[in-house]
Amino acid sequence: MQEFVEFTLGGLGDGVIYAAIGLSLVLIWRGTRVLNYAQGGMAMFTSYLALFIINATGSYWLGFVVALAAGLVLGAVLERAVVRPTLGKPPLNAVIVTIGLLILIEGVAGIMYGSKNRSFPAPFSIVGAKIGSFALGPGSSPTAIFTAAAVLAAAGLLALLFRYTAVGLRMRASAFSGTVAQLMGIRIGRITTLGWALAGLIGALAGMLVTPQTFLYPNSMDSIFVLGFTAAVIGGLDSPVGAIVGGLLLGVALNYVTGYVGSNLPELAGLAILVLVLMLRPSGLFASTATRQV
Amino acid sequence: MTLARHAGIAIVAGVVLLALSARLDSYRQYQLAEVAATVVAVAGLTVLIGISGQISIGHGAFMFIGAYATALIIMHLNWNLALVILASAVVAGLAGAVMGVAAARLRGPYLAGATLMLAVALPAVAYQWQGVFGGDQGLDFAVTTPGFLGVNFGLTEWQAWVCCVCALLVMVVLANVLRSRVGRNWRAVRDNDTAAALAGLNVAVLRVRAFVVSAACAGVAGSLLATTMLNVTPGAFTLALSIQLLTAVVLGGLGSLAGAVWGGIILVLVPPFLTNFASSHGLASAGASVPIAGYGLVLIVVMLAFPTGVQGGVRRLLGPVVPAASGPVNALGRRWPAIRKKAGGRDAGHELTSTQEVDKEGTR
Amino acid sequence: MNRSHRLGIAPLAALAAGTLVIAACGNSGSGSSGALQASAPGVTTKTITIGSHQPLTGIAAPGYDEIAPASNAYFQYVNAHGGVYGRKIIYKYLNDQYNSSITTTDVRQLILQDKVFAIFNGLGTPTHLAVAPFINAEKVPDLFVASGCACWNATSTLPETFGWQINYIREGKLLGNYIESHFKGDKIAYFYQNDEFGQDGVKGLSYEIPASQVVAKEPYNVAASNPAGEVGTLTAALKASKAQVVVAFAVPAFMALLRLSELSLGYSPTLVSSDVGSDPITLTGLLNSFAKKSGSFGAGLIQGIITDSYLPSLGSAGDSWIKLFTKIHDQYIPKLPMDGNVLYGMSVAYTFVQALFKAGKNPTRQDLVNAVNGGLPQGVSVAPYAYSGSDHDGMTGAYMAEVKNGVLVALGPTQVTDNSPTGPVTTDSTAQPPAPANGIP
Fold this sequence. Notes:
heterotrimer, A: mainly alpha, two-stranded antiparallel sheet, 11 helices, globular, B: mainly alpha, two-stranded antiparallel ribbon, disordered C terminus
C-alpha cells in the first residue's frame, strides 16, 4: 500500500512537469501551427542563467524570476528571428528550423558551460511528507507541492487569458484562420510573438522545476521534452486541458510500470499508451475537431 | 523503358563506384560503405516525407530493427548475406506496416509524436531481453568475403561493394516505384487526400504502403551498417539518429532521390570533418560542442535561405545556363509538361506548396 | 515527365567526383616515414602518436570528459621534461558521444588514416567492445581500456587488449568481503546498473555475501527517460525491503539520485559504493544544492559512504603522487577540478609512459605489447598489476575507504583478490612506491 501511494504521488509529480512542457507546446501550436522542438533546449538555457544568478546572489527566487523573464524574452526573440521567416513556407521547414535551433542551443550551452552535470537547487525541501510513520514519498514534498501548484496556476492563468481577454480572443482567432484574422485587423505578427513568449515563460518554469532532479547539463531537458510532447499529443495539441490530463496520465502510468513491472519498460508503455489513444482519437483525447472521415 | 534507363544509369554508376573503391584505402572504403548505407535510409525517408506527405521522426527505429535482425540471423542462422539483407528488409517492412496501420489516420505533429516515441522506446527492447539482444553491449558477429573473390580480397572493399550494390538496387527500385501509378497516387494523397479519396484512391492503404517501403529501406540501411560495423548496440540507435536522418532528407532536397544522395553524403562526411577540426585545434569538451552548434546553425541557415535544399540549389545553379522556355525548366533543359502547370503551378522545388495552401486555412 | 525521380546525373557525378577527391586526400600520406628510427606506424624520430575514443559530449560526458585532458596534461608534462627517449607524445582523442557506431568510425580513422602507434584508454564497455576485435585484427596495441569489464582479459581472442583499473568482479568481491565481515546478519540490498558494470559487480558481491542476507536487487536502466522517477521507485522498493545496507554499482549521477530519493523517502541505510560512483568531489558537485536543506541527514549528504579505491586518496595531501599530479594539474589544466576523474586520467597516462619506456628506444607495436606482457611495476596503483602473457587484467586490488568530510579516508590496508568465486581476499603484502622525484617513470 505504501508503495502504491508513493508511486502515485511520485507519478503525479512527474506528470505535472510533462504537463508544463506539453502546455508550452500547445500554446505555440494553437497560435502558430508550429511545433517547437527547441522548447526543452530553451528551458535548459534559461535554467543556466538562473543558476548563475542564484550562485552569484544566493537568492533562489531572484534566479527564478530571471529565468521566467529570460524565457519570455528568448521565446519572443527566437520567434522573430528564426521562426517568422518560415511562415508561409512548407510546414516541414519550420520543423527543421526548430530542430536546428535545438541543436544550436545545446551546442552553445556546451561551449559556454561545458558538459558537466551541475547541481540545481530546489525551491523548497525535497523531504516527503509523512502521516505518522506512513511516508508518502517524493511526490508529497514541499517542492513537489509547489511544482504542482505553479504549473496548475500557470495553466489556469492561460485559460483565463484565452477565454476572457481580448488578447486571448485574438490569439484564438489567428490560430483558427490566419488570413481571416488579418482581414479583421489583427496583427498576426505580434500575436505570434506573444504566443512564443508565453510558451518560453512556461517552458522556463518547467525547467526550473524539473532541473533539480535531472541535474543541469546541455542535454538535460531532452527526455523531458519527449515525454512532454507525448503528453501534449495524447491530450490533443489544441487543448491546454488535454496537456495537463495527458501529462498526469503519462506520469502516473509510467511510474507504475517502472515500479511494478521493470525499469526498462516505461518508454514502451508510453508508446503503447500513445498509439492506443491515437488509434481511438487521432487528434488526441480532447481534440476540439474531429478528424475528417473520408 | 523507364526501368531500362534507370537500370542503365545504375549500372554505369555501379561500375564507376566499384572501380573507384579499388583505388581507395581501407578507411575511405569504409566511409563509402557508410555513405551508401545512409543514402538508402535517407532515400526511404524521402519517399515517405517528400512523396507521400507523411512525417517520421523515428526512422532510426526501423534501422535498429534491420540491424538487429541482421545480427541475429548471421549469428544464429548463418544465411547467405544477400538473403540476410533481404530478410532484414522484410522484418523492418513488417514493422513499418504495423506502425503505418497504427498511424494511418494521424497527421502532422500527431504522426511526428508517435514516431518520436517509437524511436525512443524501441531500443529498450535490447535492454529488457538481454539474453537475446545482448543488452547494453549489443551483439558482435563476423562477416567474411565470399570465396570466389579470392583469399586476399579486403574485407572493407567487399563491404563497400555490398553497400554500393544494395544502394543502387534500392535507388532503381524506388525510382521506378515513384514513376509508377503508385508514386503518382502517393503524390495525389500528399497534395490533397480528400480529393484523392473522392477520386477513388484508398488513402489509408497508400499511406501504409509508403510506410512499409520507407521502413524496409531503413531496414536495409540498418542491415548494411551492421555488416560494415560488425556490431550492433542500442546506443547506436538514439533519437539523435532519427533526427539526423530527417535533417539529411531536408538538407539534401526534399522530394527527390537525388537529394537523398546529397543528404547521405552530408550526414556521413561532415561530422567527422568537424570533429577532426575541433580536435586538431586542441579544443577540450567545450570545443567538442562547436561542431554541434555548427550543425544547428547550418540547418537553420539552409532552411531559411535554401528551402529546397542542396538539390534545389544545384538545380537553380544549373537552371540559368539553359535557354528560357515557356514553362519552368529542369536542370537538363527539358520543359515541364503543361499539365503540371495547370495543377497548381508548382515548380520542381516547391512540391509541398499546394499542401501548405490547403493546410493554412481552417482547422485540420 | 518528372526528372526529379530518376537517378539524377548531377549528384551521382558529384558522388563520383567526391570519391575521387577523398581518394586523393586519403593517399597523400601524413609523412610518418621519417628518418632512421621511425620504427612503427605513429612513431617518428620526434613524436609518438596515440589515439583514443572518449565521450566528450552526450550522456556519458559529465565527469568522463575530464579524463582525456588530464591524461594529455601528464603527457605534456613528460614532453616538457625530455619526452620518452626524446620523443614527444601526441595524444589524439576523438569524441564518440558514447555511441558505438561513432566509436567504430573514430577508431577506423585513428588506425587506418591517422596511423596511430596504439590505442590508449578507450572509454566505455559497449563502445570499446564494438572496436576491440577490429583493433586486434589490425594488430594495434590496445592499452588500458577505461572500463572495468573483465572481458578485456581475453588473451586468446584479444591479445592486444589490456585492462587497467580493477575489474568489477574483483571490486564486488572486495566490497562483499568487507560487508560480510562488518555487517553480519544485516539485510543487504543491491542497487546496480543493468549492464556489464552492475552485473559483474553483483557477481563479485555474490561470491562473498551469503545469499540469505540479500533481500532486494534493484537494477536500473541508465538510458531511462526519467532517471529521477526511476530511481525514486527503485528506492521505494529498497526501502520496502527494509535493507540496512545498500550496495551500489552506479555511476555518479545515479548515486546522487539514490541519495536524493533516500532523503525524500526518509530512508537512511548504510551505503556501500563501487569506486565508479563514489568520487566525493563529483558527488558533492551534484548534491551541493541540496546539502543546505538536508534536514535530518546532517552536514554532507555523502558523509559515511563506504567505498573502495585503487589510487591514492585526494585527501592525502602529503602523498607524493597526489603532490605530483596536483602540481601538473595546476600548471596545465587549472580550469578543471582536481577530482577523481583527473586523478584517473593522469594515473593511467603515467602507466602508459611506464610501458613506453619499457618498450625500448625504437619500439615496434609488438614491443609495446611485450612490455606489458612482461609485467609492469606498481607505480601509482595501490595494488600490483596482474599483467603477464596469459593475464591482461590490470590492478588486482584496492583499499576500503570511507567518505569523511569530502575526502576518502582509508579504512584498512590494500587487499587483493582474483576473479574466481572461491579465490580469497587477502591483504596485499607489497607497498606502494612513492612517486619518482621528477614525476617520470
